[in-house]
Amino acid sequence: MALIKNKDEIAKMRRGGMILREVLSRVASVVRDGVNGSELNELTGKLLKEKGAQPSFLNYQGFPANLCVSINEEVVHGIPDNKIVREGDIVSLDLGVNFEGMHTDAAVTVPCGQISETARRILQVTKECLRLAVLEARSGNRLGDIGYAVQSHAEKEGFAVVRRLVGHGIGYDVHEDPAVPNYGKQGEGMRLKEGMCLAIEPMLCEGSYDVVVAPDGWTFVSRDRLLTAHFEHTVVVRKKRGEIIT
Q: Of 99, 105, 109, 133, whose CA is between 20 and 30 Å from 166?
């Protein structure tokens, strides 16, 4: 796939990104004590169908759901199933949308009711890491500038950056080149060019950055079972800073 998307392709992605934002916001709004993961998954499918869009993740490499639901120590790719959200949990909702043949991808981690101070901080810092990374998604920079922005801020605030999982290019497929690590050195890696479309997704851990795959074969979990958080936007590389389209 071409790394640089043209105006028409980006326009389609922008329309899909608006749908994704609306659906993800609606699903996040119903996270509460006692909600079932399957309810969140079914609501996602219903809302996407109403808007004439398709879920990117359903059946992608065999994934069995519209939406990834990952709770507390679960980093990403959590299968909704019948998992129950409880008061004090933090819940990552990760959604890909296929609209007019182009994909977008975004994630938020939301609190369920009253959460701990550590949970509040990891949510805040992960959001800040995403904001800083988007500022680095400008033409002439390199991938390492994005990774450095995430890693340096996360570690300054006492959190670890997952190394095994990274962001990615996106467009005609939900996962395209290049890989977009959340760690790195300034001035290293591929040079960014205007029109590149990237899914930038900081994933932070309270403890070690090591992750393992759960018995379901999909869910990545922090090895030490401490809290994690995940935020993501689809971003177009521009001259001054990244353009968020989700």
A: 99
